[in-house]
Amino acid sequence: MTVPEHAPILTIEGLDVTFRRSTVKAVDGFNLTLGRERFGIVGESGSGKSTAGRAIMRLLPKSARIEAKEMRFGGRSLPECSEKEMRSLRGREIALIMQDPRYSLNPVLTVGNQVAEAALLHLGLKGKAGRDKAREMLSHVRIRDVDRVMDLYPHQISGGMGQRVMIAMMLLAKPRLVIADEPTSALDVSVRHEVLKLLDELVRENNSGLILISHDIRMVAAFCERIAVMYKGRIVEMLTSLSDARHPYTKGLIAAMPDPRHPVRRLSTLDRSVLEALS
Amino acid sequence: MTEMPVETVRAPRSAAAFRAIGTLFRIGREMTREPLGFAGCIVLAIIIIVAALASVIAPYPPNVQSLGEVLQPPSWAHWAGTDEFGRDILSRLMFGAQITIRTVFSVCIIIGPIGLAIGVIAGFFGGRIDAVLMRATDIVLSFPALVLALGFAAAMGAGLNTAVIAISLTSWPPIARLARAEALVVRRTDYVAAARLYGASRMRLLFLYIAPMCIPSVIVRLTLNMATITLTAASLGFLGLGAQPPAPEWGAMIASGRKFMLDYWWVAVMPGIAILLTSLAFNIIGDAMRDILDPRYDRS
Amino acid sequence: MSETMIEVRDLDVVFDRGSPQENHVVRSVSFQAAKGETLGIVGESGCGKSTVLRCIAGLESHWSGEIHLAGRLVGKERSRDELKSAQMVFQDPYGSLHPRHRIGMALAEPHRAMGIGEGWNAVAGALTQVGLPADFANRFPHELSGGQRQRVAIARALMLSPPILLLDEPTSALDVSVQAEVLNLMCDLRDERTLTLLLVSHDLAVIGHMCDRVLVMKEGVFVDELTKDDIRFGRTHHEYSATLFEASLLGDDAPDAMARGAEAGFGS
C-alpha cells in the first residue's frame, strides 16, 4: 500500500455546470480534494457524475457553462488553461478511460500502432522505440501473446482486451490523475473484476490519483477508499464505508440492489417523495 | 375466432392529421433557429407566392409581343429588360416560376411514393425480391439522367408533361436506395421483433412500422433532389424538349436569349439568375431539413 | 410438479452454416420449466443465452430440435394461436417501442394485429396494471423515462395474456433504483397471473433474486444448474459458476478497499 501524500493532486471547490438551454445545474457545488487515492463517484443516470468528470478534463460541449471557485490540478488552475495547455495535460497528466473501448479506440489502426502512437505523442518515442514501449505496456496489462495482439484491429479483440489496451495507452505516460468513467459497464461480468484490479494496481504503481465514476455502488466500494454519492447534481454524502451511509438516497440505493444471499420477496425501492422533500 | 364488437372505443381518426400538422409546426419552429435554412425558406416562399399570383402582380402579360420595345435593357419600366419580341422578361420569369414549381412538385409527388415503396419493399423482404428490385434500380441509376430524359421526351413528343415523366423516370433510384437502407435498419429493431411476436402481418409491418420510419429521410432527400430537378427541367427546356414556346419556361428563355447574349446580356442572364436562386433555395432548405429531421447529423 | 410450460429438447443453433464464419451458437441444449416457475439463464455476452430465448419466442429460424410451449410442439413459423402462448420483453427500453407510435397505440397493437378487436379499451387497464397513469396513452415513447418504457413493454407483452413471458435482460439498461421497481412489478405480475418466466441476464444478483432455478450457460451449453439455495449460500458445481459468483462481488472474499483504506488512515 502506498503512503498517502498530503499535497493534493486535484482541488475543486464549488464546481457548477449548467447546460445552455436548461435552468437546472447539471453539477451543483461539487467539492473535492483528491490525494494519491482512489476516489469513487456514485450516482444514477442524470446525477451529474460523468459531467463532473468531464468538466475536470474540460471535455464538455460548448453549450456547457463551467463555473468554479477553485479548480486546481497540481500547480495549475484548470479554468485558466488555454485549450493548447489542456491538450498537453490530457493524456499526459490526466487520463480518461471511457465506458466502451469499441468507441474510444481508432478502428483503422492496429492495436500496436495505436499504443505506439500514444508513446510518440506523450513520450516522444519514435519508430522501434515506440513499438517496444507499446509491447512493454501491453504485456504490463497482462495481454498474453502480445506480438499477435499488436497486429490485430480493435474489432478483432474482445471488450475486456480492448479496455486493457485502452488502459495501456492511457497509463503509458504515467498520468498523475486517472478518471475512469464506467470503465467496466460494457464488459462481461467475469472480466470486470480483473480489469478493475489491473487499473487499481497500475494506478498504485504510478502513485497517481484515481477517480472511479460508476453507477455500481458495490463495485466502487470494493475499490475506493472514499465515495461521493451524487444525486441531482449534488454530492449528498461522502462515505468511507457503505455501512456508514446516513442519507436516505444512499441507503435506498444500497437496499434496492438485489442480493440473493439475503433473499426478499420484494426489493425495497427509493421513496422519491422523501428525497424531493429533502432537496 | 369469436366475433368481437368492433364499435367499442375507436382511435381518434384525426390523430394522424394532427400529428402531421404538429410535425410541420415543429419543422417550422426549428427552421427559425437555422438562419441559412430560414433564408432559403423565405426565398422559396417568395418564389411560390410570385408563381401563384403571377397573373395578378406581373406588370405585363407574358406572351404579348410589343415590337416597339424589342431588347430593352433593364429600366424602371422593365426591371429585367425585354426580349427579342419586346416581352417583359420579369413578367415572363414570374409566369415561368409557375412552370418550374409545378414541374418540381409533380416530379416529387411521383418519385417520392415510388422510391419509398420500392426501397421499403426491397429492404423489408430481402432475398430475391431485394435482388431484383435493386438491380433494376442500379440499371436506371447507371443511365445518364439527362440522356434518358432526352430520349424519352424525344420519343413521346416534347411538352411539359413528358418532361415531368421523363425526369421522374430517372430520379427515383436514389430515393429507393435510401429507403431500402433505412428499412434494413428498421427491420432489425426490437419493436419490429415485438410486432412479429404479436402476429403483425407483413403488410402491417410494412405500412405501420417500417414505412413511417423511412419517410423523414425520404423527405429530406426529396428536398435536396428538388434542386437537381429544377436544373434538369431547365436543361430539357433549354434543349427544346420541355414546355413549348411561347410558354415562358426558364430554360427555353435562356436558349432563345443565347443568340443575343453578347449584346443583350439580360435576356439570358435573368432566367439564369432565377434558376440559380431557386435551386440554391432548395439545396439550403434540404440541408436544413436534414439537420432537423435526421438526428444522425446532430449539431452539438 | 405441475404441468410443464416450456420444454426444449436438443436445441441446436448454427448461424451461417456452411460459410467460413459458421457459428455454432447453441449446442444441443435441453431444459424445461413448470407452470408458475421462474427459470433463469445466466451467462456472458455471446454465450447463446439470448439466442435460446429468441428461438423459443419464434424470432429465429436457424435452429433444430424440439420446442414445446404450453404443451404444444411449435415450429419455426408460428400461427397466431401459438404466438399467444409466449411474449417477450427486450433489453433496450429505447429500442423496443416504435418511436412514432403513441403508448396507447403500442398497447392496442397486439389486439389489432391479432385481429381480436381494436384493443383501445384495454389500454387504460394495462397501464394501471404496470403502475402507470392511464393518460400516458397519449404520450410518445421519447416522453417517458427508461423505467416507464420498460413498464410499457411489459404491459404490451401481457396484452395477449400469454402464460409464458420471455425476458431478455429486462433491467440491465436501467438504474438500480428503477431496476428494483421493475423487478418488483414482474414478481407481482407473475404471482397474480401464475406466469412462467424465462429470464436471461448476465447479472447473477438479478437472476438469483428472481429465479427459482438458474442455468449457467457458457459457449452454447449449460455447464451448471443452481437452485435458489445454491445461490444463497454460494454453492456451485462448476468452476465457471464460481468465477461468475466471484465476479458479481457476491463472494464472501470480495475485497473491501474501504475497510482497508479506513485502517490505513484514509478518508476524512
Number of beta-strand segments of chain A: 11
Straight-line distance between termini of chain A: 39 Å
Q: Which class of secondary structure composition applies to the elements of chain A?
A: alpha/beta
Largest sheet of chain C: 6 strands, mixed
Q: How many whole angstroms does the radius of gyration of chain C measure?
A: 20 Å
- Percent range for helical residues of chain C? 25-40%
Major sheet: arrangement of strands of chain A: 7-8-9-3-10-11
Strand content of chain C: 25-35%
Number of helices of chain A: 11
Summarize the largest interface: chains and residue counts: A-C, 46 and 49 residues
Mean pLDDT of chain C: 88
Alpha-beta content class of chain C: alpha/beta
Q: Outline the biggest β-sheet of chain A.
A: 6 strands, mixed
Backbone CA Rg of chain A:
19 Å
Low-pLDDT ranges of chain C: 252-268
N- to C-terminal distance of chain C = 56 Å
Pfam families (chain B): BPD_transp_1, OppC_N
GO biological process, one term (chain B): protein transport
Domain ABC transmembrane type-1 (chain B): 101-286
InterPro entries (chain B): BP-dependent_transpt_permease (IPR050366), MetI-like (IPR000515), MetI-like_sf (IPR035906), OppC_N (IPR025966)
Description:
The complex is a heterotrimer of chains A (279), B (300) and C (268). With 279 residues, chain A is α/β, with parallel strands linked by helices. Chain A has a domain at 1-93 and 219-279: Rossmann fold (3-Layer(aba) Sandwich), CATH 3.40.50. Chain A has helices spanning 49-57, 83-89, 101-104, 111-123, 127-140, 146-150, 159-171, 189-206, 217-223, 248-256, 272-278, and strands at 10-19, 25-34, 38-42, 64-67, 70-73, 76-77, 94-97, 177-181, 209-214, 226-231, 234-239. Chain A has a six-stranded mixed beta sheet, sandwiched between helices. In chain A, strands 1, 2, 4, 5 and 6 form a five-stranded antiparallel beta sheet that branches. Chain A is globular. The mean pLDDT of chain A is 87. With 300 residues, chain B is mostly helical. Chain B has one domain: MetI-like fold (Orthogonal Bundle), CATH 1.10.3720.10. Chain B is elongated and about 75 Å long. With 268 residues, chain C is α/β, with parallel strands linked by helices. Chain C has two domains: 1-85 and 164-169 and 195-268, P-loop containing nucleotide triphosphate hydrolases (Rossmann fold); 87-161, no CATH class. In chain C, a hairpin with a 2-residue loop joins strand 4 (63-69) and strand 5 (72-74). The longest helix of chain C is centred in the last third of the chain and has 18 residues, at 176-193. At the A-C interface, helix 8, helix 9 and helix 10 of A face helix 6, helix 7, helix 8, helix 9 and helix 10 of C.
